[in-house]
Write a structure and sequence with these properties.
It is a single chain. Strand 1, helix 1 (7-20) and strand 2 (31-33) form a beta-alpha-beta unit. This protein has a single domain (2-103), classed as PK beta-barrel domain-like (M1 Pyruvate Kinase, Domain 3, Beta Barrel). It is built from three helices and six strands, in the order E-H-E-E-E-H-H-E-E. It is 23% helix and 26% strand. By secondary structure, it is α+β, with helices and mostly antiparallel strands. A six-stranded mixed sheet has the order 2-1-5-4-3-6.
Length: 104
């Protein structure tokens, strides 16, 4: 499984985490996107850098967030979890590139 999140959410959450002194890698999202409403990809096949995915649903924050960031984090992040997707093909994704998913 893969989890994607829009760059606007990532930048906002990264700033909040930085202000709290929390390491950004704890956010645990695999792909940062731009230019697409990720909810539109639920139930759809899409491509990122030649790798195919199937959008399976919204990524809801879980109780683990309270342990990683502090009590109340799960509730505060509801609606900002991003997209969960199943990987359908092999491939390599380039790091340091903001993805622009395209429907297949």
């Amino acid at each position: 499984m893969m989890t994607a999140v829009p760059i606007s959410w990532f930048l906002t959450l990264s700033a909040i985490l930085f202000a709290l002194g929390v390491a950004g890698f704890l956010f645990r999202r695999n792909i940062i996107t731009r230019g697409k409403d990720l909810n539109e990809l639920i139930g759809q096949e899409f491509d990122v850098q030649g790798v195919r995915f199937l959008g399976t649903g919204e990524a809801a924050p879980c109780h683990w967030m309270n342990q990683a960031f502090g009590e109340g984090a799960e509730e505060a992040l509801k609606g900002f979890g991003g997209l969960r997707a199943r990987v359908l093909s092999d491939g390599t994704l380039c790091s340091e590139t903001v993805a622009n998913p395209s429907a297949v």
